[in-house]
Amino acid sequence: MPLRPAVQGAMPWSVLLLSAAAVAGMMLTEGPTVSAAVLLLLLVAGRFSPVRVGDAVTQSGAAFLALVIGATWLRGAFPAARSDSMLDPDRLALVADTGLALIVLQAWRRNRASGSRGALLVFITGIIMLSASNTFDATFAPWFVPVYALLLLRAVRDMRPHDDPPEGLPDRRRTVVRGIAWAAATALGAAGSGALTAYKEPITEWGMRMLREIPRTPDAVGLSGNPRLGPSWSRALSLERILQIRGATPVPHLRGLSFTDYERGAWLPGIDQRQLRPASPAELAPPSRETLAEAVVTRLKPLDGLVCAPLNVAGLVPSDPAAEALWAPEMGGPLRLGGGAPTAYTLRLPADERSQGPLCVRPTRADLARMLALPGSLDPRVRALALRIVGRETRPERKAYAVAARLMADHAYSLEYRPGGGDPVSDFILSRKPSYCEYFASAATLMLRCVGVPSRYVVGYYAHEQDGPDSLVVRQRDAHAWCEAWIDGVGWVTVEATPASGLPDQAAEAIPWGMRLQEWLQKQWEAASVALAGPLGIRAAVCLGALLVGILGAQLVRRRRRREAATMGRAYSEPSPRLRAIARRFREACAPEVAECPDAVPWLAHLRESPRGRTGEAAARFVSLYNEQRFGGETPGGLADLEAMLDQLEYQGDA
Amino acid sequence: METLGTARRIEENLATVIRGKAGTVRRLLVALAAGGHVLLEDVPGTGKTTLAKSLARSIDGEFRRIQFTPDLLPADITGSSYYNAKEAAFEFHEGPVFANVLLGDEINRTSPRTQSALLEVMSENQITIDGRRRTLPEPFFVIATQNPIEFHGTYPLPEAQLDRFTMRLALGYPAPADEIDILYSQNDTHPYEGLAAVATCADVRALQEAVKRVRVDRSVAEYILHIVDATRSDPRLALSVSPRGSLALYRTAQAAALLSSRTYALPEDIRDLAGPVLAHRIMLDTKARYAGADAQGVIAEIVDRTPVPR
Fold it and tell me: Is the ipTM value over 0.90, yes or no?
């Protein structure tokens, strides 16, 4: 007598091994995780446990999982994509974890319709392997990928519906052929994975070209925390979007970092040497300040948390009140706002651009001394030149104007600079070479100090690119440097010394339409992420998620009842619950045989018209006995016989 | 079961005479077991008379035949009273209906009045003549025939009258192999000549009683009603199945189950019998007829789209 299995609808061993191989590959590259280990155990346990959950539970669980993962993803909990992989590995790992959870749900599901479930399982294991192979790890790929390929072939074979019952012991010839097939597949897999590893750069490049019109060049985005004058513009002209500004158009200069000390081409102190303290909402947005308008800035890249805002902003309000704001106002910055990217904050803009806001802290005497200090490396001729430029002018603002105008007149703009010896700024000023904004800003700062105007060097972004009727977009190529000067009686003012031809609005090239379309899609995504990041958004997402799960659950239950009604003839008088359960088990055990049976054709007639080998004959015998109980009157002995026959059927189906 | 044995013997006996028509013979027996009557719609020379005679002989019953003609009177069917001068009294001479198996050939050739007389007898199983009720023998089984292709000088049975026949069957031409058997089997004598009785009228009555004890689950009865109800809501039908038709399907399903050695009816029985039992009870409207639909097709379509109970 054959052994009675304890499980109905268990996942075939080949699919189990396939899933395990994919997950093992993921754990090898991403590192072992508790969740993956627990899910693997659950996967294996599903093979032996008799417990099964219905479709409604499985599908609701899958929908809920997808909602939670989607919400987490939207909250931007992951860093930006690394440039050496086609897809974000962290996001892929998350998808892989989700896929593993879905496989576990399938393993515990009652449904025996192995066709559709099989295709789904193969697809999910493929996603997991993609995640695992994402880095093309040379150690892992050549060994694991062929194993996965072999198990995949086996699993696909096992998941096909069988017309004939499984044969007995294979003959020797079949074993030899199988062995050759395995060896050939292993060799092919190793060769394939070796080729992928050897040519990963061209493949990645090809993929990146497909995703973007302009090939993405490996460069960094953001502002340098330790700027140093060099032979060329330190940031490549990347089109990466940094900021999105909606609302009233602010002044174009959005300051990020300011520096007071200069030493042989380097501006100090570095960002890591700043002492930041928490900024209260009252400090960031003083209530007494009158505002003309507001603009909402969305920071699309982390930028190390830096907030870019105009010098004269009247107030700054983070969208997320819980976000931590740090600043060092006495040093002129930086202002840091936590929350990763995308992060939004509101700028309150005054009518008068000379208005002194929370970022315009009056310098102390010590600060003034620092901002008037000249570096020892500065050529004395620079001071003489500065004095000549300003002449007899005494008003600081006129001095600033004169210095800036002279620098613009004497120097052309160029992204390249050929430094001479000595101090870079002195060399730039005295040699009248063309250069870029960092040099102009540095020169203006030091020359103003020479004529007694306290000033500092500032890096930030120059906002100029319209992106809709009431919107601006700031890209990495719009990074800029300028000077800020302290004018007694006025306060802090921006001093722009870069020639107009060198300003980002003049140097910008048109954005290709393909990239604009991609950015538009990205903006919708970011808007949703920002909205969901707030507390209201989270609550709304949770409520919506719960509502969707509820609706989905109700739909599943209704669909199941309708299906039962159609298949069980619910429009007809029902048999006893025990017989109904037997009928349900039969449908699951012999899903391939009865799945194609039309509603208007009795099972027995269908099985006799389209016999399916041994299983079909047993199913026909079962149905005959079932009909006797269903239409001839139920008896306890008859129902017990039916259940015994059903066990046999289920065993035959599993074998 | 003894009654099942009766049916088997009759069936096997008939098979020796009627070659290759096991399905039709089985359905005929179903109608007999259900206590109904059969309308055989067939071309001449297919064995209708032989079948009726063989059936009568198989059950050791009396066989009578009526050849319907336009001048046939109702009294020619039921019988009439004659004055016996010698006895000085009226004597009743039984008509052909006083038989166990009555073959009414070409029922559509007689006047509607005569048709009604027969149909009335079929439904009541008794005759009242001259104020006296006379019961027909039991079992009383009528096989009426119609020629489906010749309509000159005929009086087609109205659909309301057709409703009284439990089934409408057709023998049809035999298959070539069977026809060869027929040729050789009748070389010397007709197989009918050697036919012997294998049951009695009492056995048939017992069979008919046993049919009534076959279980019809409520779901199967509901299945019958679903089919019948579908005919009542079908826009192509000017006349749909009556409750008499539902009852006929019910009873024939019981009979079919018993003849299949079952004590319960199955949806399969309903599906198999829906066409023969219901097709002649419906009438297509003009539009459907001109569209090429036919009654058998409509019934088959309804059966194919009505879910079965499981």
Answer: no
